[in-house]
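Possible regression after last week's pipeline update?

I re-ran a chain I had predicted before the update to compare outputs. Posting the input and the new output here so someone can diff against the archived version. Not blocking, just want to make sure nothing changed silently.
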Amino acid sequence: MRLRRSHFLAVAACGLAACSTEPPVAPDATTDQTPQLQGITAGEPRIYWDRDESWRRIALAPRPAGSSTLLTLHGGNILTSSKTAAIFWGSNWSSPSFAGDIITGLDQFYAGWSGSNYNGLNTEYYGLNGQVTNSSSFLGHSIDATTPPSKALSVSQAVAEACKVTGNNPDPNALYAIYTQNFPRGNLNYCAWHSYGSCSGGKPVQVAYFPNISGKAGCDPADTFGTGHSQGLAALANVSGHELAETITDPRNGGWWDASGAENADKCAWVFNGAVTLKNGTKWKIQMNWSNAAYSNGTGLPNRSGERGCLQGN
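New output (post-update):
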C-alpha cells in the first residue's frame, strides 16, 4: 500500500493489533513522525476486518470516472538491475536457536531472485533510466548486534541504520532490507514497508523494514505448499518478495502505481497460486504480482478485488 512516501504491506487478519477500518498509517520519510492520512479518496483501498475469517477483505470505493486500474509511471526512475542486502538488527540474530532457518533461508531467497520467472514479472516496467531487467545481485547479510528501537522503526531510523552499516556509502541500486529481532511494542497494523532517503553527503538509499513477525497470525501466509520452511521464514519471505518487487518498480516515489496509489505487489497482496521456484531451485509461498499486460490481454488471475491482472511467476 502506498501512503505518501512510504509503502506498506498491511496485515492479512486481525492478529497484530486492534482491528482497524483505516489503511495502515506509516512514518513519514521527511518528518520522522506518524502522519495523518491525507483523506480517503474514491478508488483508494479501504481495509475491513472480519474476525471470523483468516484473510483480510479489501473493498474499493467507486473509482472516479475515467480512472484506470492499470499502473502508470509517475515520472521517475526504476531499478534496472536491482541489488539486495539484508541487515539483521539485534544480538539475538547471532544465536542459532533464535535465528533458526531465517537468516540462511533469506540468503537463499535473495540469491535465487535473479533470473527467476518471479522477478521476470517486473520486467515489463520501465523508468526514465531504462527498463527493468531480470538481473539482480545479492550483496549478502550482516548482523548489527546493537539493540534496535523498541517501537516500530521510522523511515529516518531505517535510513540511518542502512547508512551506518554501509559506512555512509550505500549502493544506489540496492534495497537494504532491515530485519529487527523484535516485534515492536504498541499497536502495529502492517507487516512490512519500504521507503527511501539519503545518507550524509547525499548518497541515496532504499530501505525496507521487517519487524519480527514470527508467530504473528496476521502476517502468516499459511505455507501449505510443502516448502519445508518454518512459519517465521515463510512469513518473512512473502513480505520480502512484496517489498522488493515494489522497490524495483517504485524505488523513490516516482515509479509505478495505480489511480488508488497501489503498487504492483499491493494489487495482488495475499493472493497465491502455487509455490514459486526461484532460479536456485528453492521453493517459496510468495504472493502474486500485478501485470498491466496480463490485465489488458485478459490472461491474468483475479486479485482480492476481482481485477484480473495477477501472475504468479512460477
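Follow-up from reviewer: compared with the archived run. The first strand starts at residue 2 and ends at 3. Marking as no regression found.
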